UniProtKB/TrEMBL annotation:
May play a role in septum formation. Residues 1-33 are annotated as: Disordered. This is Sporulation initiation inhibitor protein Soj. GO terms for molecular function: hydrolase activity. Belongs to the ParA family. Keywords: Hydrolase. Its EC number is 3.6.-.-. The gene is soj_1.
Length: 315
């Protein structure tokens, strides 16, 4: 059982620094630390690391629990990789369109989107949009039309494999990374995403009931693997919204690491108000506030993800 949290303090207290992600013994003022982080981020951009994966990587970001950081993780890891020189695509597969909003991508009704791609009305290229903030970052947006897709897909031929078929057309685009942001459900949209990708990334919020429902998610992944996509594997787990002031967050992190072992990234994403403010400006935290702890943690997470992938592909 999980421990009861200690009393909470206001968010973003200076003490709320991800112990696992960021600490510098040489910098003892918040402004100094922020400046140093911004410099690190700019260096990452100019150094152009990490290297490209040998083969395109497609990751489905799934957890049927709502509000655990799926979209935030998708857009920020994608933006961090693009900043470092990699061609990256985010496919918004959630009718809420949160990933499209966070990337500053047009997604009014009528915009060519993941809905038309899934239903087969348009070639996938027609729905591609480039980020206003990074020329290497692209998005296939979601409009509200996607809300009807779960039902429309039911009667369609090869309904679980439609996204996979559509994505095959994208091979000329040379994307290094494709992230598919799923809605908080295990319906046909999420199943399409699981069929289309070899890798699953599960974000887990460092809160009460963190692992609730994960068993069901894993059973669904196993089912898709045995019937529809033998390549499928959970390769990555990301701990999100970590609040270092609570014992609960540590307890959850320990439970998740005990459960998933080395699939869990060492980098932990801290809870930070700025991360939640960025989408309101149509920006990722990488563009909105490059000197913030949130930006640095997503940069670190992106590098870890990229380096692990290279090791895997080398095997
Ligand atoms: N590290 C963070 N610090 C503070 N707030 C965060 C952080 N990560 C995400 N949030 C906020 O938490 C809320 C849920 O995050 P997000 O939308 O990424 O989750 P989700 O799993 O995609 O949700 P849904 O299931 O509705 O699609 C959002 O308001 C987001 O801005
Ligand atoms: Mg979301």
């Amino acid at each position: 059982m999980m421990a009861v949290p200690e009393s909470r303090e206001p968010e973003d207290d200076p003490a709320d620094v991800s112990r696992e992600t960021w600490s510098s013994p040489d910098v003892d003022t918040p402004i100094g630390a922020e400046a140093e982080r911004a410099v690190r981020l700019m260096q990452a951009a100019t150094q152009g690391q990490p290297p490209r994966p040998a083969r395109q990587r497609i990751l489905t970001i799934a957890n049927q629990k709502g509000g655990v950081g799926k979209t935030t993780t998708a857009v920020n890891i994608a933006a961090a990789l693009a900043l470092q020189g990699l061609r990256t695509l985010v496919i918004d597969l959630d009718p809420q369109g949160n990933a499209s909003t966070a990337l500053g991508i047009e997604h009014r009704p009528g915009t060519p989107s993941s809905y038309e791609v899934l239903i087969g009305d348009i070639p996938v290229e027609t729905a591609l949009q480039r980020s206003p903030h990074n020329e290497r970052l692209f998005c296939i947006p979601a409009t509200i039309d996607l809300a009807g897709a779960e039902i429309e897909l039911v009667s369609m031929v090869a309904r679980e494999g439609r996204l996979r078929t559509a994505l095959a057309e994208l091979k000329h685009h040379d994307f290094d990374y494709v992230f598919i942001d799923c809605p908080p459900s295990l319906g046909l949209l999420t199943i399409n995403a699981l069929v289309a990708a070899p890798e699953v990334l599960i974000p887990i919020q460092c809160e009460y009931y963190a692992l609730e429902g994960v068993g069901q998610l894993l059973r669904n992944i196993e089912m898709v693997k045995s019937h529809l996509n033998p390549e499928l594997d959970v390769t990555t787990v990301v701990l999100t919204m970590y609040d270092g002031r609570t014992k609960l967050a540590d307890q959850v992190a320990m439970d998740v690491r005990a459960h998933f072992g080395d699939k869990v990234l060492r980098t932990v994403i801290p809870r930070s108000v700025k991360v939640s403010e960025a989408p309101g400006y149509g920006m990722t935290i990488i563009d909105f506030d490059p000197g913030s702890r949130g930006a640095m943690s997503y940069l670190d997470a992106s590098r870890e993800l990229a380096h692990r992938g290279l090791e895997e592909q080398a095997r």
